[in-house]
Amino acid sequence: MDMDSAKRGLTIEGLLQLEPMSGSVVKAAHRNTNRVISRINIIGGPDILNWVRPGEFIVTNGYPFQDNPEAFADMIPQLQERNIAGIGIKVRRFLREIPESLLKNAEEVGFPVVEIPPDTTFSDIVRVAMEEIFFKESEHIMTLYDRVQFVSQELAKGQSIEEVIHQFEHRMGNPIIIYDLEGNIIAPLLEKIIDKDDLYQLVSQIERKTGIGLSKISLDSEDIYCFSTPLLNEYSKRHISFIACLETNYQLTEIDCLTIEKISDLLSMELTHLSAKKKIEQKYMEQFLSDLFMGEALTESDIHLRLTAFDLSLEHNFYQVLMIDQVSSNNDIYQYLKSFPSERDFLMIGTTFKGKLTLLLAADNCEKLKEQMVLIDQRVTKFHNSKKVNESHRIYVGSPVSVLLEISKSFKEASRVYHIMNKYQVTETLHKYENMHIYRLLYLLPENEEVAQYIDQFLQPLRDASINSIDYLKTLEVYFQANQNVKLTAKKMYTHYNTIVYRLAKIAELLDLDLKNPENLLELQIALKLERLKSGKG
């Protein structure tokens, strides 16, 4: 579909229905009779190309070409190139019939040709057609005015953008998508028919094509047309904010596209105002959560008072803190997680704290907290998939607490999990404090000389003996990870079985330890774990 077919006005199809064109017949390129006519031009001379303009529908009696119909046929591709809407040819006076060569050329290039009966009066065509064109143009101006006025008035009344767009979609007849300044998606109609991940993928498609006008996108494995225009965004360089209209129900018209362009200015101003307001609120929220996580001399009455200012309530039985460590924008991930419908007995609020997205979860029972943690883990993965980025993430979770003032305890535990687990290469993404086992004790050991000596007693001889091709520390670590299975250790290290047997014997010799003694093995594992923790504490 080109832009001609995306316009409203008098089309060739509509022209044929007017009384002066009675008896006229489309003889070529019937598929393009939806072209819009800007005006009617009567041509009587042979130099047609000098007197035509784009969008015109030409009418002629063929007099200039009665002796040279082939020249008439050769002109058709040139008229198509000049974006002429079509041509009507009166027959039986100067041309007995429209030349077959002309019709053939017209069909090939998609240029509509209409045969006009000999008793038709051209002046009647011009008069009636131009009246219809002027009427439709004024009608479209009023349509544009009414739409822009509606959006302006509803926003001025204090209606939310979501509610305004919901009503506006019914006026447009097609779904609207807004990707706002903070990465939120507003799409009232589409949110009801496609799932969240498909909606994010759709937004990614539109974002890449925003600013180029009418374009094709894919929705439910079908290609549809979409018109999108950028929204002014001074706050974010991470994404392109836009408003778009999708051609799912009715053909997008020129007036539809112009409407989207005009209301984009109104929405940009409204969204800029809302974004500035949210930034102030977010600043206070971040300070509140920071105080809550760090246990900064808060009382329960202080907490409830500050929550009231945010129109929030923490009247739940259990609270838990988790930290998400990943590469993507923390704000984008948080907005994605917040975009899912909230449940009555669950609350999630968050902020970026020390570089990581840190969430406070509140629920009426621990099972709900566990359920939501799994969902958050799955949704972060889906977010990365929808963006088609190869990113991994880890989630570090503190223990649930039942008292508001103990939220700082859960936060500190989540921090410990982070400092412990980011030293290990693991495939799991969800790490809980309750699963840290002995690390929970080792983490509490101070970094003093005695701890350093303990580590060196067991590991320094192995460091000194290791060379490029032989790493005794690595061998020992993998051996313990493989539950002291020599065959599995060899497989994990891509090494021969006998090589691992030799290295273990060498380790026993260097340390003067019996590796079959459980006490010796325990001390070695503790030394290795302390070594890992030493650079991870903070």
UniProtKB/TrEMBL annotation:
Q: Which Pfam families match?
A: HTH_30 (PF13556), PucR (PF07905)
* Residue intervals of the PucR C-terminal helix-turn-helix domain: 472-530
Which residues does the UniProt record annotate as the domain Purine catabolism PurC-like? 15-133
Q: Extract the InterPro entries matched here.
A: CdaR-like_regulators, PucR_C-HTH_dom, PucR_C-HTH_sf, PucR_dom
Alphabetical list of Gene3D superfamilies matching this protein: PucR C-terminal helix-turn-helix domain
Protein known as: PucR family transcriptional regulator
